């Protein structure tokens, strides 16, 4: 049942935020309809948001969510995007005020919890699995793909934030917020209360890479839920993913199998050793090569698959920004067969 609600926002540089949001979402493949009055975006299986820029210090947004859970995810996502914009533009996140109207009262108690690492395993030379003990599994959506982690420095005594009445993280005065990263839930066990997160290892000097390199059993991280993203529901799927997105693609493929639905996967890797991540199967094809070779390989595979794909097929593609943009451009110039919808997601810049 569709849920209608709206939000009145007060924040500095509101028109610039809408422009920033439009650019950000275009890269994610979200359907956008800009107009002189504002911006409307549509996300299948999530909902529709219509932004109206009223003045330089605020905007109004009318929202139609497909259900209560997606309404909660929209609320979290809009709050996080606005805070990210303000932080990136040198403004305080405390300048953001969101007044929600018509939104059901949510249980905020388990949106944030501190969880413990119970195992760290290298699946391939460049893929590491981190298993988390999660006391309250209800904080994670059953069909959600992603979860957000707060990453503390190694061996540090951490003062964890609290959630305020709006479900926003509240840090102690003068405390620097911990870096946050979004990762894919590879698999989970509700009864045993654990979640596996598969993460690509690299040598970048960044908080996520540093945390992953030193993560060990017994360490704690902050976990924010419910998870974002969702499992596509089409009867037939074409899946394309580089190593960063393969955990999500495999999660989707597993779900398709339990529903008796069909899928084909093109997996992209830059190192031959990483092909061990997926057992050999008739519906899995690997392309091993440098990043520059991936767009052409993807287009060749898509044309071959689309030639015999049923009309109720959906393409799900995720990876680097360059791959997503190249695929988006190619699909505009040479669309796939009639009826094939597509969802493109940027997993890294």
UniProtKB/TrEMBL annotation:
Pfam families: FAD_binding_9, SIP. Coiled coil: none annotated. Signal peptide: none annotated. GO terms for molecular function: oxidoreductase activity. Residues 110-233 form the FAD-binding FR-type domain. Belongs to the SIP oxidoreductase family. This is Vibriobactin utilization protein ViuB. It comes from Comamonas aquatica. The gene is viuB.
């Amino acid at each position: 049942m569709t849920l209608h609600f709206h939000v009145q926002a007060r924040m500095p540089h509101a028109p610039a935020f809408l422009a920033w949001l439009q650019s950000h979402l275009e890269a994610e493949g979200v359907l956008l309809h800009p107009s002189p009055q504002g911006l409307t975006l549509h996300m299948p299986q999530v909902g529709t948001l219509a932004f109206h820029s009223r003045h330089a210090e605020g905007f109004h947004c009318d929202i139609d969510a497909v259900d209560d859970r997606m309404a909660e995810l929209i609320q979290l996502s809009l709050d996080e995007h606005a805070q990210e914009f303000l932080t990136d533009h040198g403004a305080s996140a405390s300048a953001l005020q969101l007044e929600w109207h018509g939104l059901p009262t949510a249980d905020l108690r388990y949106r944030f919890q501190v969880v413990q690492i119970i195992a760290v395993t290298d699946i391939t030379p460049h893929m590491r699995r981190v298993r988390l003990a999660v006391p309250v599994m209800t904080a994670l959506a059953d069909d959600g793909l992603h979860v957000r982690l707060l990453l503390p420095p190694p061996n540090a005594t951490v003062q964890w934030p609290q959630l305020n009445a709006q479900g926003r993280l509240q840090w102690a005065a003068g405390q620097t917020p911990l870096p946050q990263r979004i990762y894919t839930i590879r698999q989970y066990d509700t009864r045993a209360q654990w979640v596996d997160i598969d993460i690509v290892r690299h040598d970048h000097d960044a908080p996520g890479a540093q945390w992953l390199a030193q993560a060990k059993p017994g360490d704690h991280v902050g976990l924010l839920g419910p998870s974002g993203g969702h499992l596509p529901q089409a009867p037939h799927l074409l899946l394309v993913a580089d190593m960063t997105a393969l955990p999500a693609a495999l999660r989707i493929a597993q779900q398709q199998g339990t529903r008796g639905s069909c899928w084909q996967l093109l997996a992209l890797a830059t190192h031959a050793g990483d092909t061990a991540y997926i057992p050999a199967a008739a519906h899995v094809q690997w392309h091993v090569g440098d990043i520059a070779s991936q767009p052409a390989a993807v287009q060749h595979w898509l044309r071959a698959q689309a030639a015999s794909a049923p009309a109720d097929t959906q393409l799900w593609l995720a990876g680097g920004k360059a791959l997503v943009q190249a695929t988006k451009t190619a699909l505009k110039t040479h669309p796939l067969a009639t009826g094939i919808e597509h969802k493109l997601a940027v997993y890294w810049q």
